[in-house]
Design brief:
heterotrimer, A mainly alpha, B alpha/beta, C alpha/beta, B: alpha/beta, 2 domains, six-stranded mixed sheet, four-stranded antiparallel sheet, about 25% strand, C: alpha/beta, Rossmann fold, four-stranded parallel sheet, ABC_transptr_periplasmic_BD (chain C), signal (chain C), ABC_Transporter_SBP (chain C), Iron complex transport system substrate-binding protein (chain C)
Chain lengths: ~350, ~260, ~290
């Protein structure tokens, strides 16, 4: 056996060759992306699909009868699917890292305040920024809500990290407690905003909290690549420190890990990845918590496998959930955050039963 | 290999350690003994860099500990702590494998597989390799942790050090003896070994030198015979001891328990 | 040069106009817009509506695209509409931006309250559907104006509040700048809530101080809240004169549309708020049947 992934860092309990898990997860993501582009309430014929692809590749001009297909494929579906893949990957990757950092399978990015901070600022934008938002208000209007949510998510995280700081070191227990406090503050603020909001604003806040990818456009993708994709790549590099942290913080230090640095990098990157995703989609439940958990059940604890698998599967799950969200009640749409939970939770419970059996 | 000079540490207004100096040399087993709360674990945490002393300095190979890169230190100093519980389920073999972490990206990592296997064989845990760590008994877990520390030091440049905090706590008597024998062998291979022990006789048979602490201060340092001396023991533990052959000592249970 | 290019473009433009048929696959988002489309005789051209499109009953049998503030992008594109009539209340802006990028034929119509706004909506929808707005628009303006004097002449000015929903805790009550406020004022009555805009929860103290004579509710909201008895038992409302007089006034939700039935709704509400009062009947408008 080569000293590869299966070898040393610890394969965890599942001793099946988990090296295959990463290509498998990548395959699932690709399959879900393909399905998300090909399927949906708007029917696109295979001929239409080929014509659009040929047109996009510059091989053949698009016949006029397929103009509608191009709108569906390249304007509505493709950016939406890619956005879902990135946001899902960011949530799941950050979730896996948070669980490793907190040494707790119940941790998720919400613990460091990203979601509640983003929700608070988004709600503030909806309630107070009414006139500034919307396409009538131009570019700023369309970007104001994501900007506020992003700032809110990061702000809450930095506040929590700051409060958790003791003698230059961020204690994980302090982080948890500060997180509980700041989260409670954000939720209270959110409640206050809902209370002073009028009916329509309250409904808008509610829909934001349930998540949606309906606003996905190509212009969002470079932003998401930079603010979700890059942090995810950075998080993947934390696999070894996180492996060491499975033994404990002291033990990780004894193994040569710069624990403080690893913690800071993990919190900052996870916060950026999640805040940027949530800024465009609204809150998407379940993925950050349960996808890493699911991956661990399947492939064990080795973070070099868990992190990429979680990212790929998180993306796949969100893409698939969005396909269901826009197809099931067509022509209406379901909130995608609801669908992720509806799809993922039973699967998770099934795995849990099989594992305990 | 590792030297502590004039180490003091206060926490919450209480002096945990007062002006303790200790030298750990390559090729020796140094046992640290003393009553509960004497500062044994605190001393170990200072020597391995977990804690910084309020006064005094810890040197590894003559260089102050904070000047070391954690990774460089990890390649020549392994620590076996008392309670290592896992965040996520892992096999025993995977836990031992974590010991090879510092060698990633170093030519030494070519030996990862052998290092893990040999360390597990040495600690007698090879048959447990595929078991879930959490399902092992306390003693088995300690031996797995020992194997992890051994795997970490496989291929380490000399001098190198192994620090152990009460490694025999959950072991049965046969495994205690086996562990002490391993420590002796390691010293023979040129390692500096420091081990915290509760059982004075384990110190007597396992160590070259003994450091005795009481209330955070040194109550004796030297050869087994010098330190494990009934008058001194009476002073430190408040119990009468009797000398047995081979440097062993036994508390006078009859006198202590009364009629 | 400019003339030449125009000339050259002439036949092409003509051909384009001929090819562009009258919109025949229309999605209406907004109850008033749907009502207008049906009143203009274009109900058969609608392929889908939103959840606020309840009138006429035929609208409820059409495919539904969901809540207008959470537009489904692909769902709308999949309907292949040749006209997407959006109330300006529709959203979210990001989804509308996607629809624009997909070159959906969008027409946004302001959603005002009052007689003039209703007529404007009817005209805007007629124009978008390429239908004549007459005689419907003028008739609506006439009917609305015909009510001004008789309502002003009514002897009472009932004072009350409009409750949007009462099923969850504190009742949501309309403030200024709401369609409900406009409807109450148009009916010659007084909306007691002036302190805020939009719909907000009302505290029992505020309700007691306002002392409303009537509590106006949409019939489906009244039903959801458990009927008049349940509404009057709500702490915020139980203390009011309206509760003592058991004055919970139900009305169809479409009364707040300010669409083609705006005048009819105004008359009906003015009468509902004053039991026993009379107003002259409005002329029969055949396009409002069905």
């Amino acid at each position: 056996m080569a000293a590869g992934v299966d070898g040393i860092g610890g394969t965890g309990l599942a001793l099946r060759a988990p090296a295959r898990a990463v290509p498998l997860a990548a395959g699932l993501l690709l399959a879900s992306l393909l399905a998300a582009v090909l399927l949906g309430p708007a029917r696109v014929s295979p001929a239409g699909f080929l014509a659009v692809v040929a047109d996009l590749l510059g091989l053949a001009p698009l016949p006029a009868e397929f103009a509608g297909d191009r709108a569906i494929l390249s304007v509505v579906r493709a950016p939406r699917a890619l956005m879902g893949a990135l946001i899902g990957a960011g949530l799941a990757c950050a979730g896996a890292v948070m669980q490793g950092l907190f040494r707790n399978p119940l941790a998720d990015p919400g613990l460091i305040g990203v979601s509640s901070g983003a929700a608070l600022m988004a709600a503030a934008g909806i309630v107070f920024g009414g006139g500034l938002m919307g396409s009538r208000a131009g570019l700023l209007g369309l970007w104001l809500l994501p900007l506020l949510a992003f700032a809110g998510g990061l702000g809450a995280t930095f506040l929590i990290a700051r409060l958790a700081m003791r003698e230059g070191s961020v204690g994980v227990a302090n982080l948890l407690l500060a997180g509980i406090g700041v989260n409670a503050l954000c939720v209270a603020g959110l409640g206050l905003l809902v209370a002073i909001a009028d009916d329509r604003q309250a409904r808008d806040i509610n829909f934001w909290l349930l998540g949606s990818l309906a606003g996905a456009r190509w212009v969002h993708l470079p932003v998401l690549l930079a603010l979700v994709g890059l942090p995810c790549l950075g998080l993947l590099r934390l696999a070894r420190p996180l492996n060491a942290l499975m033994l404990g913080e002291r033990e990780a230090f004894h193994l040569g890990v710069q624990v403080e640095t690893a913690k800071r990098v993990a919190v900052v990157l996870a916060a950026v990845a999640v805040a940027a995703g949530v800024a465009f989609s609204g809150i998407i439940a379940f993925i950050g918590l349960l996808v890493p958990h699911l991956v661990r059940m399947a492939v064990g604890a080795e973070h070099r496998i868990v992190l990429p698998c979680a990212g790929l599967l998180g993306g796949a799950l969100l893409v698939a959930a969005d396909l269901v969200a826009r197809s099931l009640a067509a022509p209406a749409e379901l909130p995608v955050g609801v669908v992720t939970a509806l799809l993922g939770a039973p699967f998770f419970l099934l795995l849990l039963r099989r594992q305990s059996a | 290999m590792i030297t502590g000079e004039g180490l003091s540490l206060r926490r919450g207004g209480r002096a945990l350690l007062r002006d303790v100096s200790v030298q750990l040399a390559a090729g020796e087993v140094l046992a640290v003994v003393g009553p509960n709360g004497a500062g044994k674990s605190t001393l170990l945490r200072l020597l391995c860099g977990d804690l910084r002393p309020d006064a005094g300095v810890v040197l590894a190979e003559g260089r102050a500990l904070p000047a070391w890169r954690p990774l460089d230190l990890a390649r020549r100093r392994a620590v076996m702590t008392q309670h290592a519980n896992l965040a996520f389920p892992m096999s025993a073999r995977a836990v031992v494998g974590l010991g090879r972490l510092p060698w990633h990206g170093h030519p030494g990592s070519a030996r990862d597989e052998e290092a893990v296997r040999e360390a597990m064989a040495r600690a007698g845990v090879l048959p447990l390799a595929a078991r879930a760590y959490a399902t092992l008994s306390g003693g088995e877990q300690q031996r797995v942790q020992l194997a992890r520390a051994l795997a970490q030091l496989d291929g380490a440049p000399r001098p190198a050090a192994l620090l152990l905090d009460e490694p025999t706590a959950s072991l049965d008597v046969a495994h205690r003896v086996a562990l002490l024998r391993i420590l002796r062998e390691l010293a023979g291979e040129g390692l500096a070994v420091m081990v915290i022990l509760h059982d004075l006789n384990e110190a007597a048979i396992g160590a070259d030198r003994v450091l005795m602490l009481r209330d955070g201060a040194v109550a004796g340092q030297g050869s087994v015979a010098e330190v494990l001396d009934p008058p001194r023991l009476r002073e430190v533990y408040g119990l009468d001891f009797r000398r047995l052959p081979d440097g062993l000592v036994m508390p006078d249970y009859g006198a202590a328990l009364g009629p | 040069m400019r003339r030449r290019s125009l000339l050259a473009a002439g036949p092409a433009l003509l051909a384009a106009r001929a090819a562009r048929a009258v919109p025949s696959r229309v999605v209406c988002v907004g109850g008033a817009l749907t009502e207008c489309a049906f009143a203009l005789g274009a109900g058969s051209r609608l392929v889908a509506v939103d959840t606020t499109s309840l009138v006429p009953p035929a609208a409820q049998r059409l495919p539904n695209i969901g809540y207008m503030r959470a537009l489904p992008t692909e769902g709308l594109v999949a309907l292949h509409p040749d006209l997407l009539l959006l109330s300006e209340e529709a959203g979210p802006p990001a989804a509308i931006e996607v629809l624009r990028a997909a070159r959906m034929p969008i027409r946004t119509v302001p959603d005002g309250a009052g007689g003039e706004a209703a007529v404007a909506k009817l005209r805007a929808v007629a124009e978008a559907l390429e239908l004549p707005a007459e005689p419907m628009a003028s008739a609506l303006a006439e009917d609305w104006a015909a009510l001004d004097a008789p309502i002003a002449a009514l002897p009472t000015r009932p004072r009350g509040i409009f409750v949007l929903s009462g099923s969850s805790g504190a009742p949501l009550v309309s403030g200024r700048d709401t369609h409900a406020d406009a409807a109450i004022r148009a009916a010659g009555a007084v909306n007691l809530v002036e302190g805020y805009r939009g719909y907000r929860p009302l505290s029992p103290e505020m309700a007691a101080r306002m002392a409303p004579d009537f509590i106006l509710m949409m019939d489906h909201a009244l039903e959801a809240a458990g009927g008049p008895e349940a509404v009057l038992r709500m702490p915020a409302l139980a203390v009011t004169p309206a509760a003592a007089a058991r004055r919970v006034v139900p009305m169809p939700g479409s009364h707040l549309n300010f669409g083609p039935r705006a005048a009819e709704a105004r008359r009906a509400l003015a009468l509902a708020l004053r039991p026993g009062a009379t107003l002259p009947a409005l002329p029969e408008r055949p396009w409002l049947r069905g």
